[in-house]
Amino acid sequence: MNVHYRDNRKIDPSLGPRLGDGTENDGNRVEIGPTALAHAEWREAGLELPDLAEMRKARHKRLTDAIVARGYGGLLMFDPLNIRYATDTTNMQLWNTHNPFRACLLCADGYMVLWDYKNAPFLAEFNPLVRESRSGADMFYFARGDRIGPAADAFAAEVADLLSRHAPGHLQIGIDKIHPAGLDATRRAGLQYRDGEEVTERTRGIKTEHELRAMRCAIHSCERAMAVMEDFALYRNPQGRGDGGRCLGRTPCREHQAWRRVDRNTTAYLRLRALTHGFRNAGHGSSQRVKFSLSTPI
Fold it and tell me: Which of 92, 34, 42, 86 is closest to 63 using CA atoms?
């Protein structure tokens, strides 16, 4: 009863209305962002925080410049990673990877439109670079059934209309990934397909100062989290000891010394086997227990 809410509150009023990265000091904000714990660790490490608003502007400008340099009318993105890069918005990334219901069109004049779920336009409201939020980019069977063709034609008509207003006379459009019905529909709408993935990959290849700051912060957080997991696995977890013993104090047992040698010599080897070491079921639906070790082929 001696612990009060103020002692563990997620919003620190002493930081003011905005955090060090420019985002609102609000634990209930829409955009995905770091927690108060992460901000505290970064301050302790002396890391310089990125300005996320400036980072978004720089990404928007780099993509727009790349579109203009290639003579395209716009860039149409379906890949969730590319949409995140262009808009800094997310929505069920894994589901969207399998069933692409989101799309983003960046026109040559910088006008950007995001297609999302009909009832979720608020997901992009924090970013003023997203000028419109629409719906109707889903062109897969689960969502459209036998009406994929008409849905694709309607979507392509919207894209063609936007390009006619924001890049008049430019019919070439870069597209990263699109459903075959959508590609056919864009061609029927008079647009000329170009490789949009080349645009996004080359654009992301050069990092801005704010992106580098963000990467340093992200790496620091990952290393801190992995250090906690390593400490638990090496010294606090009494299970899974391959030599039948337990680590005493801060001295790793034989198996852990082997893991450290592996880690020093080849991190790729470690990554392939880190989550398969120990006893596991032989396969899905199988009750047979198989011992995987460092030398087990995967």
Answer: 86
